[in-house]
Amino acid sequence: MVHAHAQVDQPVTLGITPTGDLDGASRHYEKKLGDMAGVYADETAWQAERSVNGDDSLVYYVNEQKYQEGPGALIVGTSVLLPGSYGNEFAVTRGHLHGVSDRAELYYCLSGRGVMLLETIDGDSSAIELTAGQAVNVPGQWIHRSVNVDTEPFVTLFCYSADAGQNYGIISDAGGMKNLVVRDDAGWRTMPNPRHTGYTVGVTQ
Ligand code: MN
User: Ligand 1 centre and the CA of 164: distance in Å?
Assistant: First the structure.
């Protein structure tokens, strides 16, 4: 029997745990200390970490389910950013602007405590603290990165358009994001990144 809707994708259940396990993930990738060249403002501190823990030391990992292709489809995943600091700067993910820059993203904190650091190429900035149960709706046009400001893994669930893509070069070409999230008596604060040279409009990758 040929069903009229035989070509439609079926809904799927995803099992998601507070520690970021994703039952149904189609991809897993890891970023290690050796992958983080140029990411941290304090180069000496990053080099010191490399010499102590080695380039294979895990910084963060991602589980994701890419279920469909094309505009309208979603990528759903979890990000687990381990605690750490480099000088006074907290551990971060590389961060990016979406390749299709108007694509938005949801980040929902599953466990830990972290900050979503957000900037636009036009000079707007924001830093939003997240703990379990809180989410941030990241609109299009915002460069975004996760920062772990605590001593436990910072675990988030994310969801964004499958056609969004990631532009990492916009950050690396600018000498890093405009702001850093650093240790402070109150826990954390932002401060200007002395290496930041300004975002270049029109960078594609
Ligand atoms: Mn994103």
Answer: 8
